[in-house]
């Protein structure tokens, strides 16, 4: 879950995961951003993706191009539904990794949103995954199956081996399908936002666009909804992509913060969109 500032592969991706923060061993060169293009597979006919980066690497999207200008005040709120592969026992003991009240608030406020879901979360809450993935207000994107780190160190997350990365991403998509989610898009968010050139190369066969962010909400472990709302409101600009969380136990004030953020941004003339629209 995201709560501080870190640099990934030469890109400034403000963020941190639910677990603590670790420093990467020197930044590596980021791929040159590519222009969005329509996806070509049968399930992605209307969903924009980005052309592969240099060497055919997985492309990375962080926000809409500034060239869209202040006249196009769009913003995408995104929510990471985090659950690692080994947190099942904690869920059995009553810890809640879901946040139905947040989803209800987004519906009430009519806020189109993208939920970056782990496959383990979809397995734990299949009815909710199906409901979110069947509601045209939302789209589900991939946040890995295991929520393990795709580069290390990454805030204390267990590391997944390069040989298992592609299968992990595909396993998450399979979990969404098994749950009955229909509105699934070919986007992927690295756990913790941590990645390197090796991970971008390994995931290329998955055909996904990696989605980062330019505004970190600070909702991870936060207890002050006003502070979260102020952090978002002070940093958002036209085309921004905001990272928040849909994990009740570790981001307990997100719903309250959203109820303050949304009316104020609308008052400022912003329009909420899903990542698939922001990428067009």
List the helices and strands and how they pair.
Layout: E1 5-8, E2 11-14, E3 36-38, E4 48-50, E5 60-61, E6 74-81, H1 88-92, H2 100-109, E7 113-117, H3 119-124, H4 126-134, E8 138-142, H5 162-179, E9 184-188, H6 197-202, E10 209-211, E11 215-216, H7 225-235, E12 240-245, H8 254-267, E13 271-272, H9 275-278
Parallel strand pairs: 5-10, 6-7, 6-12, 6-13, 7-8, 8-9, 9-10, 11-12
Antiparallel strand pairs: 1-2, 3-4
- Named CATH architecture: Alpha-Beta Barrel
CATH class: Alpha Beta
Question: What's the end-to-end separation, in Å?
Answer: 27 Å
Biggest sheet record: 9 strands, parallel
What is the overall silhouette? globular
Helices and strands, in order, run as EEEEEEHHEHHEHEHEEHEHEH
The count of DSSP E runs of length 2 or more, i.e. the number of strands, is 13
CA gyration radius, whole angstroms: 17 Å
What's the average pLDDT?
Answer: 86
CATH topology (level 3) name: TIM Barrel
Annotation field: number of helices: 9
Structural class: alpha/beta
The helix fraction, in percent, is: 25-40%
Q: Please, how many domains?
A: 1
Low-confidence stretches: 4-43
Q: CATH-wise, what's the superfamily?
A: Glycoside hydrolase/deacetylase
Describe the model.
With 280 residues, the protein is of the alpha/beta class. It has a single domain (5-15, 50-278), classed as Glycoside hydrolase/deacetylase (TIM Barrel), CATH 3.20.20. 30% of the residues lie in helices and 19% in strands. The protein contains nine helices and 13 strands. The strands form three sheets. Strands 5, 6, 7, 8, 9, 10, 11, 12 and 13 form a nine-stranded parallel sheet that branches. A two-stranded antiparallel ribbon has the order 1-2. It has a two-stranded antiparallel sheet with strand order 3-4. Strand 8, helix 5 and strand 9 form a beta-alpha-beta unit. Helix 2 (100-109) packs parallel to helix 8 (254-267) and helix 7 runs parallel beside helix 8 (254-267). The relative contact order is 0.23. This is Polysaccharide deacetylase family protein.
